[in-house]
Amino acid sequence: MTAGLNHLIIAPILIPFFAGALMLLYDDRQRRTKLLISLGSALALLLTAIELLNRAKGSALSGGNDIGFYLLGDWAMPFGIVLVIDRLSAMMLVLTALLALPALVYAAAGWNRQGQHFHSMFQFLLMGLNGAFLTGDLFNLFVFFEVLLAASYGMLLHGSGQLRIRAGLHYIAVNLAASLLFLIGVSMIYGVTGTLNMAHLSNLVPLLPESERPLLHAAAVLMGLAFLIKAGIWPLSFWLSTAYMAAAAPVAAIFAIMTKVGVYVVLRLSMLMFGASAGASAGFGAYLLLGGGMATVIFGFIGVLASQGLGRMAAHLVLVSSGTLLSVTGFALMGGGSAMLGGALFYMLASTLATSALFLLIEPMSREEGGIAALLALTADAYGLDEKEEDSQPETGLAIPGTLTVLGLSFGICLLVLAGLPPLPGFIGKVAILRGVMASEALPAGLGWAFVALMLVSGLATLIGLVRIGIQTFWASDGVVPRVLALEIAPVLVLCAMIVLLSVRADDALRYMRATAEALYRPTIYAEGVLRAPRVVSSPTPAPAPSPPAKPAAQAPSSAAAPAPAPATPAPSAPNGEVQP
């Protein structure tokens, strides 16, 4: 591994860090400069993530393996801090960058002017996300988790408003409690195993004595709860719908990947610590993830049917996506197979892009008084909330022609993906998941068929809910055409183009996802690769290994006994106390 390639792995963390810190030096009146710096940082992140994705596929990055490393401080494993890039983390880096650019362009239409330090907080959020995907030890996972949470607190409160502040304070309280659970769980794991390195934990879990295994499981439950709260698992998802609905449009668009951070960590640690090679701990938590994921899907599609506004409906669709992925993670721990898990990763990519685009569509679709505005008012009355305070957007900018047509087509693409209808990638991902579930012999037949039925019902509920919103907006309106700026619709069109491209290149994407799933089923690739990561500076030649101790005299034959050596004569000392040769 070359030194330049080594440093490329840390670039997704350093780029947003320096960009965010630099923008803190600029006055709030220099918004154009801040926007250019933020866009340049996001573009550099995208190019870096794509390069890492290309090189993480068994190339020079790792000497033929699907994994690469960066040793901070050049400390040897497992004592040092390591950043790890593999297929899964590289894919999450690309997905984060793909969501960041459209959200920033949309914010340039006026949302970034509603408060201070929007772009700096956005960059620190990207830093925390990328660090969580790259880190190879639990303590630094906690650090990056806190970085992204601290940035998300400010971003959720961006723009003020009574509903936004109320939802933001609720969000802060819930996530502080999750952070406390995470810290307690990490401390217990260190107390049991003596390490926080993920690769080292993967090797130690099968060797733990049975007396210490219950404490490890308790620690895993506490730590897992923190990320399941972030993933929105039921019944810990009560905070999510109001928080996502109240957030500013570009903030909600980037928040679409926040639940996937929880799913990513649960999937990564479950396959490393409780996979098939984990001994007595193999499959720990599988039924909890499966049951909680299916309950989350049920809660999500009931919320979709009950919602009268697109904002709350989009938030519940995030829960449907997250619950599906958590259920598949439970199946994966039971040995569901790489085909099913690969389909779930493909579905995650498509559903995240679609929900992000849907959050960007909410405000343009509800801008003028009409059917959707009445429904939003009805939602406020039904939930006992104040009328939603929308920040006024600037009247400057280029308005697009054929507004309703463009909005309708974009909304239709999001509908097809989230409902799982052909020919878009939501359908392809769900079919791959269901085929893997039905073809696997390791899964209980009853649970498999129940999951299949749940996927079909959730898709139907999503279709009904979104079609109802579409009819009220585009067919039952009073004919008033909203004024939508090009800066607002261009990011949506870019996200929709990504979805269409994913459909066209579905075979290549599915092949990549299956290879990623196969690597997750073989945790030894990750563990051995990290623990054998070479240092940049060669260590000194190690001293020869000491010879094994001699047998006690009582066990050795008397004929082989050798006379004891005479004691060595001490060397004479010089007057100054130094030993003479």
What would your notes on this structure say?
The protein is mainly alpha-helical. It contains 21 helices and two strands. A two-stranded antiparallel sheet has the order 1-2. Strand 1 and strand 2 form a beta hairpin. The chain is globular and about 70 Å long. It starts with a helix and ends in a 50-residue tail after the last helix.
Descriptors:
two-stranded antiparallel sheet, 581 residues, 2% strand, mainly alpha, disordered N terminus, 2 strands
**Strand content bin:** under 5%
Mean pLDDT: 81
Helix- and strand-based class? mainly alpha
Global Rg: 27 Å
Tell me roughly what share of residues is in helical segments.
55-70%
Count of discrete alpha- or pi-helical segments spanning 4 or more residues: 21
The secondary-structure element order is HHEEHHHHHHHHHHHHHHHHHHH
Strand arrangement within the widest β-sheet reads 1-2
Calculate the terminal CA-CA distance, rounded to whole Å.
47 Å
What overall geometry do the principal axes of the alpha carbons give? globular
Give me the count of strands.
Answer: 2
Low-confidence parts lasting 5 or more residues at pLDDT below 50? Answer: 1-5, 59-64, 369-399, 538-581
Query: What is the makeup of the main sheet?
Result: 2 strands, antiparallel
